[in-house]
């Protein structure tokens, strides 16, 4: 078996990783600090969107609580990575047993992801029986609960006040490494037996149940894995922004991540990647227009909210005219060489 045949199952993730690396290298070569910052945030967002795709794309159920798990991971990770002095300075009411905790960056990130996954595992199983509107509404209620707890648990989150003093460990290439790892994890999950069974229950839950597929267990496993990715992504984001409040993990961020996935296409890993790249570029262009209008003072009362309104309109149009997003259920693949086609290799099926 030649190398091309061995790499054939990895065609899609390798293609997506190549696209990510090209963007990262171009940003590095440009040497513009603002561009590097935008691309770094984009790769952290990509991780969050991929985590959402893992559950939503395979189960067909919208999950509003995703950004809540990002918040849990962010606060947990910084509580483990910050020094004792920084914790006391930013939150004098912090529980005494949390003050001396201090671990390196990577273990702190993983603990943040594990705590988010553990929370998801403990509270989500009864919710996995729900479908359609009931499942969506309960996930939104879960987001509200997480937000309220983060907002008022002063002795852990510093309440509504800004938590500052977080060390900046998330660089461009750190975000690239985690984005690449997440692409492989989400793709292999999709192609795994769990992913196939979950999509079978998504397409026809009664037919899936008739052949012995336990829909609740499949959904629960995907939900917990999705929460773990969101938790790690939240830790990465926190160590890049370095100061934040619970409002950072609520409706605005939920809207952006959801728009990235829906516009790109929720039913494929490639859709998550394409949506993140497209929406990030569009947001920066729209923000530039908004800032330029404000600088020119074309409107006496200011010109605000243009970016969000246009993005919402695009989201509505996508849902009307192309509800499966830009990519649909297709996955990006590296084009086959002419010689391979002539040798009679079977065409790759669509996802």
Spatial shape: globular
Report the portion of residues in β strands. Answer: under 5%
Largest sheet: none
- Rounded mean pLDDT score: 91
Q: What class, by secondary structure content?
A: mainly alpha
Write down how many β-strands occur, each being a DSSP E stretch of 2 or more residues: 0
The amount of helix comes to over 70%
Rg for CA atoms:
21 Å
Tally of contiguous helical segments: 16
CA(first)-CA(last) distance: 24 Å
Helix/strand order, N-terminal first: HHHHHHHHHHHHHHHH
Low-confidence stretches: 341-351
Q: Overview of this structure, please?
A:
- It is a single chain.
- The chain is mainly α.
- The C terminus is likely disordered.
- The chain is built from 16 helices and no strands.
- Helix 2 packs antiparallel against helix 9, helix 4 packs antiparallel against helix 6 and helix 9 crosses helix 10.
- The two termini are 24 Å apart.
- The longest helix is centred in the last third of the chain and has 28 residues.
How would you describe this structure in keywords?
single chain, 351 residues, mainly alpha, 70% helix, disordered C terminus
Give a topology summary:
Blueprint: H1 3-7, H2 11-30, H3 33-59, H4 66-81, H5 84-90, H6 105-124, H7 132-152, H8 154-157, H9 172-191, H10 193-203, H11 205-210, H12 215-241, H13 251-264, H14 269-296, H15 306-321, H16 338-342
Concise summary:
By secondary structure, the chain is an all-alpha fold. Helices cover 70% and strands 0% of the residues. Residues 341-351 have low confidence and may be disordered.
